[in-house]
Structure formats: structure tokens, C-alpha cells
Amino acid sequence: MARNESIIKSSVDGIVVINAAKQIEMFNPAAQSIFGYTEDEVKGRNVSILMPESIAVHHDAYVESAVRAGELSERTLNISRELPAVRKNGMQFPIVLTLNLLKINDKVLMSGFIRDISSQKEKEGALVKEKAKSEKLLKALLPSVIADQLREE
Questions:
Q1: What contacts 24+ positions apart, CB below 8 Å, involve 100-107?
Q2: Which H or E run includes 100?
Q3: Model-level pTM?
Q4: Share of the chain above pLDDT 70, in %
Q5: CA-CA distances (angstroms) from residue 38 to 13, 83, 107?
Q6: Which residues contact 87 (CB under 8 A, 6 or more apart)?
């Protein structure tokens, strides 16, 4: 057990484990760094505290419905998806979340592996701006026919 705990604690991805009541049972150091909460602050609280209000208000009902309908399957689990999340300070930011279902001694848990993609999104935004700026400059310097041909290459 100590080996597994060491692996979880050393993960660069945030790992959040919740129980069937959607209460946080584990919040590794990377999750603490990402969200700004200590494990003691979130343990036993509903996982919705990590979500924007627009998602949080529907989360519990969605999970319960999916469990009843048997939809917690490959359609929902083990797939990475981009979602908004909320830090302790209220700041919203983008994450990639991968959910997994765990069954340990007849207890059903869900684990979420979380990566903060804020800096990646900022870089993508900067690239889009620079590309638009370059295209504008290219059009200004070259005749439009040549600029269009260069852009296509």
C-alpha cells in the first residue's frame, strides 16, 4: 500500500478520488497545487466545489442518472475531455479530465486524473494571434495573389 501511495503522491497530474456520494476521499499533492486547496479542506466535500456553478448544479443528478442507466462505461470513462474547473480563489481555468471507475472491496469509487492546461491554451491563443498578425503583414507587403499562394504552401 505504501508503494501505491508514493506513486499517487508523486504524480504530476492531479488525482481526485470520490465515493458514491460524490464526496472527495483523496486529493493528491498535484491536485492541491492545481486547485489551491489542501486535502483536509476538500476531504468529505462534494467534488462539485472544483467545478463552475453552471456544471456543478447538474453534476450530482447527471452522475446518478448515468449510474442508474448503466452509462458509466467506455462512453464516459477512460476518455480525456477538456472541461472548465475552478480554483479555491474562484478563478476558472481549463483542465483535461480522465475518469476511471474503481471497485475496492465492494466499494465503488471514481478517480479523476486532472491536468491544468492553462499555459497550453495561452500559448495556442498567442499562436493564433501571431498567425493573424503575420497574415495581415504579408497582405500589406505583397500583392494579394502572391500572399494567397504563399499562405497555401
A1: 101/72, 101/77, 102/17, 107/19, 107/20
A2: strand 92-104
A3: 0.76
A4: 84
A5: 16, 22, 25
A6: 34, 35, 36, 93
